[in-house]
Design a protein that fits this description.
rod-shaped; four-stranded mixed β-sheet
Length: about 210
């Protein structure tokens, strides 16, 4: 009679008294170890096509999806994302009146990652702001983007975030950042140069901001 492994994983080990069958022995080992390892599939469609019947997914099974660079786990009823691969940052083209590296926070960039099974837009960097007009106001009505974000990076509804800002020429420590469904990013809440309170920070940081898509 075969015994099981010492780690309580239910992997059968052939006994010396079992009938000799090298092919069956090798297959039994592979079939026992494979579903307990980190399996790799080209896509979720391939995963669904392979893991059926006797090979149907069981709770705790883990699989990597190569097309989207996601690590998934089966919780007993469905697959959930538990990790993602490296996602490249893309630089945002800025509208006139805005410049990268505000307060040495770096170039304003974005990337799409998966957090807890949900596609998420992450931002980093900072912008310098040149106010103009009479009285001076924020350029482009606060819209930072020269061109909209790509469609995949646009949220399904308006997302309002908070960004730290300079206290120079500003009576507040932060401003509202709106990310619209049209892919445009807007700094909201600044005032004219003559307003009281005056909110005209020379820079705004986007570091640490993210939102669900």
């Amino acid at each position: 009679m075969p015994t099981t492994d010492d780690y309580g994983q239910g992997i059968g080990i052939a006994a010396l008294t079992d009938p000799p069958d090298a092919s069956k022995l090798a297959k039994d080992i592979v079939n026992a170890v494979a579903p307990r390892s980190n399996m790799r599939f080209a896509s979720s469609s391939e995963r669904a096509a392979v893991l059926v019947g006797a090979a149907a997914p069981v709770e705790g099974m883990v699989a990597w999806l190569r097309d989207v660079d996601l690590l998934t786990v089966y919780d007993g009823s469905s697959w959930s994302v538990i990790g993602s691969g490296t996602k490249a940052w893309s630089t945002i083209s800025l509208a006139s009146g805005f410049a990268h590296n505000g307060n040495s926070n770096g170039t304003l960039q974005y990337r799409i990652v998966n957090l807890f099974g949900e596609d998420t837009l992450m931002l980093r960097g900072g912008v310098n702001i040149t106010y103009s007009g009479s009285p001076k106001v924020i350029p482009n009505s606060g819209f930072v983007t020269n061109t909209p974000l790509v469609t995949a990076a646009r949220p399904s509804s308006l997302r309002s975030l908070t960004g730290a800002c300079s206290t120079t020429d500003s009576d507040v420590l932060s401003v509202k950042i709106d990310i619209g469904t049209d892919g445009r990013i807007q700094i909201v809440g600044t005032t004219s140069a003559t307003a009281n309170p005056k909110i005209q920070p020379p820079w705004v940081s986007f570091n640490g901001t993210f939102c669900s898509l």
